[in-house]
Amino acid sequence: MPASEAAVLPGAVRPTKYWIKLQPDLDRFTFQGEERISIEIVDPTSEIVLNAVELRVEAATLNRDGTATSARQITFDKSQETVTLDFRGSIAVGPATLDIKFAGELNDKLHGFYRSEYTDSGGEQRYLAATQFEATDARRAFPCWDEPARKAKFEVTLVIPSGLVAISNTAVTDESPAGPGLKSLHFAETPVMSTYLLAFVIGDLTHIEQQATGTTRVGVWTTRGKEEQGQFALDTSVRLLSFFNDYFGIPFPLEKLDHIAIPDFAAGAMENWGAITYREIALLVDPVNSSAGTRQRVAEVIAHEMAHMWFGDLVTMEWWDDLWLNESFASWMGNKAVDWLYPEWEMWTQFVNMDTNRALSLDGLKNSHPIEQEVKNPAEVSQLFDAISYSKGASVIRMLEQFLGPDTFQQGLQRYLSTHQYGNARTEDLWKALEEASGQPVTSIMDTWTRQM
């Protein structure tokens, strides 16, 4: 859990579900939003504190027992990235709903709710709107409890130009006119999940798709004219889904899994549940001109992100100091999956040459850090996306699998995922599950590898 001095929100209020409606303006690069949040008041309080940054909160109303109370004062703390809604009187323990109207900017910073610029096949400058919320940027799109342990359900409605399409974590359940030149798309309710895994992309997009299993459809989305370059990713994803379903023992729980190529994207890819976003070069393969190395890189990234659907999305670290639980396992599992799919690529030989050596190189420096690294504020999270959290952690996991044996290790992982699904977990929870499966003192062995440089 977070250190005592970590910058976290007060625990008096707990969200259970968000209904979010957003209307982006791709000409003025702004958006209007409104949300209703189902909340549980855990301790009596006179104010509600949420995360919000670079947003204007225009109104906030608390509803309970048939009575609506408007916030008397709305104040922002820029350094803490919070907004405080002061209702002046004590709010008793129990369920309530919170209605908030807000507005923001479609920024050009590649995080939060942002605009992506590209040139279409006809040479015309175009824009689409996309999201990147990990680690702490959902608060740039809507006021929320933007911490991984504050899981909730989400129901999203997007009002967009009639000629565009929109993608989110779940499938569209309803489409209706929303005024001249506009349409409203309502998406199905998500599972319980963390705010940083919510996603929506709006633009002139097209896709190819395939029914992967009896319950899951896989799609690859691109800007218009690049559909053919998504075929390798689609074929790879469909085959990998069956591998992951079998290995983890828990079928992918959503009815669709989309892979979305974004022209402007800061990370290589992002594991939004059911709507994975990628840099174009990390997803698209030119069937004529792309090299074998490009195909391998695309397969690796897809496998890494799909592994996150279980390790990270289904079960999420409780706080950012256990980020390695997400990234190390996705890196290790991605290699295992690609090795299963393309054994001729000899992925584990490459892994030792690339990942293990990269980890040893960074870990030999004075500014290295433990795999489990304490995080006190959001600014520190970005420092953990390095070869320690990815490559060293994955190398240590590979070592542990060999020590316990692949079958025993798999049983421990399945036990861990089954116990903590739709919830949050710590590193010690994983060690406990592996101990129960193996009878080995995993915690005492592994603490020396993960808790010190």
Care to describe what's here?
- This protein is of the alpha+beta class.
- 28% of the residues lie in helices and 34% in strands.
- It is built from 9 helices and 22 strands.
- It has helices spanning 231-248, 292-308, 323-341, 347-363, 378-381, 388-404, 406-420, 427-438, 442-450; strands at residues 13-25, 30-41, 45-51, 55-64, 67-70, 73-77, 82-91, 94-105, 112-119, 125-132, 153-161, 165-168, 172-177, 182-187, 200-203, 205-211, 217-223, 256-262, 269-270, 275-279, 315-317, 423-425.
- Strands 5-4-8-2-1-11-14-13 form an 8-stranded mixed sheet, with no helix packed on it. It has a 5-stranded mixed sheet with strand order 16-17-18-20-19, covered by helices on one side. It has a 3-stranded antiparallel sheet with strand order 3-7-6, with no helix packed on it.
- The chain is globular and about 60 Å long.
- The relative contact order is 0.10.
- The model has no long low-confidence stretch (mean pLDDT 94).
Shape: globular
Spatial strand arrangement across the major sheet: 5-4-8-2-1-11-14-13
Unreliable spans are none
Helical segment count: 9
- Report the sheet-strand fraction: 25-35%
Fraction in helix: 25-40%
The value of Rg in angstroms is 22 Å
Please report the total strand number as a whole number: 22
Distance between the termini: 20 Å
